[in-house]
C-alpha cells in the first residue's frame, strides 16, 4: 500500500470538501448552512490529526434511528458515515477513492450535514408552515406579481443564526450528547404518535397521517393551550370547538372556511363580544354577488343591506347608489344587525391580520352537515350563547340575561334611531339591550389544524384532511425519505 494513502493533508481535505459541496444539491436550510460554513473556511468540527473521536459515534446513534421517524437513513448519509468510520478505525485506505484525505473530508462534511439536518428538524420541525402555507393559495396575480392568501400566523420559533452558532459550539465543546437530548420534542402527544408509528400493528397506509401530526408536534410555538387554565380551541379538521376552563369543557360544532377560502391558522386572545353586529361585507362578495343588483332597492331591503360613505359615515339612499360607488373603496356595503344577519346575533372578536372571527349564524342548518367548510374564512359556532357565558369571568346573572335578551329581541326597529335622536320603539325593553361586552380577562384562542388529536379524555381521534395540509407536508418529506 502506498504511503500516500495514509498521509494527512488539511489542504487536500478542504479541496475534497469543496468537491462535496459542488455535488450537494439538497436544498434544506440545514444544507445551505452546512455549505456556507465550509465555504467560509470554517474550522474542522469532527476531525483532527488524531482522527475522529466518539462524538461521531454519539451522533451516529441518533441518526441511525431516523427510520423510526419515517425518514430514510440515506438522507442523513448514515451508511456512508458508518463505512468511513470503519475505514478510519481499521486503516482501510487506498490511493483512489478511499485515501485518508477523501475519507476524512467525507466524514467531516457528512457528519455536519447530518447533524444540522437532525438537530434543526427535531428542534423546530422539518417543515416551515409559515413559509409554505402562506405561499399555497394564490389570491391574485398578473404579469408582474402574485399575491397569496394568508393562511398561517402562529408565533413560533425558527432556527436562526444564533441556533446554528450554538449547534456548532456544542460540537467544539464536546457536548453533542447533551445537545442531542435537549433538542428532542417533549410533547406527550409526540411520544404517543412515535410509538404508534412504530407499532407493528400500524398499517403502512396509516403512517403518513401519523408522521405529519408528529411534525406538527415538533413546531415550537410560543403559546400552547396547555399553558392556560382557560382557553378556546378550534381544530379545523374536526369541525369542532372546545372551550376549556380547568375541568369544565364546552364542546360544539363549527362551520369554517371552505377549501377555496380556508380559515387561517392563528393564535390570539378574545377581547370582546358584540351583540347584533353589523356586517361590513368584504369586497370580494360585493364584486361577486351584490354589484349586479345596483338599482334593485327591493334586493337591498330584503337582505337588510345599506351603503355608507366611508369618509363621512353617512348612509346613501339606495336609489342613488351606482355601480362605480360599489366598485370604489370609498363606500361600504353593510348588513344591518339583527335577525337574518350573516354574522348571526353575536360575534366574538380577537386581534388578527385576516379579519376573521368566531360568530353566530343565521343559517343554523350548517351544523347538521358532515362537511362544514362553508364560510369565507370566519368560524361559525353552534352554541353562541353558551360560548358567551363561558367567556365571562364572573357569571353575572344580569349581564347574562341582557346578552340573552339582546340576542333574541327584534332590534330591526332600532335601525338609525340611536343616531337621529328619535323616540325608541315601545316593543323593546331598552334597559336590557346590550351592544358589546368586554372579555376581561381576555381568553386565549387557538385555531389549529390536527388530523389526529386527543379528545377531552386524552384518546386520539382521527379526522379528514379537509384542506389538504397533510398532503402538502408529506410531499415535503420527500426531502427526507
List keywords for this structure.
alpha+beta, four-stranded antiparallel β-sheet, eight-stranded mixed β-barrel, 481 residues, 17 helices, single chain
Task: Kindly estimate the percentage of residues that lie in beta strands according to DSSP.
Answer: 15-25%
Q: Over all CA atoms, what is the radius of gyration? A: 30 Å
Low-confidence stretches: 416-422
Mean pLDDT: 92
Structural class: alpha+beta
Taking the sheet with the most strands, its summary is: 8 strands, mixed, barrel
Tally of separate helices: 17
Which percent bin holds the helix content? 25-40%
State the strand order across the main sheet.
6-7-8-17-15-14-9-18
Q: Termini separation (Å)?
A: 39 Å
Shape: elongated
The tally of beta strands, per DSSP, is 20
Protein architecture, described:
There is one protein chain. The chain is α+β, with helices and mostly antiparallel strands. The strands form 5 sheets. The protein has an 8-stranded mixed beta barrel. Strands 10-13-11-12 form a 4-stranded antiparallel β-sheet. Strand 6 (230-235) and strand 7 (240-245) form a beta hairpin. It has helices at 10-23, 29-39, 55-63, 78-90, 100-124, 129-133, 161-172, 176-182, 188-197, 207-218, 283-290, 297-302, 323-327, 384-391, 397-408, 417-420, 469-476, and strands at residues 47-48, 51-52, 138-141, 146-148, 152-153, 230-235, 240-245, 248-257, 265-275, 279-280, 305-309, 315-316, 331-335, 346-350, 358-359, 373-375, 379-381, 436-448, 452-454, 460-462. The chain starts with 9 loop residues before the first helix and ends in a 5-residue tail after the last helix. The chain contains 17 helices and 20 strands.
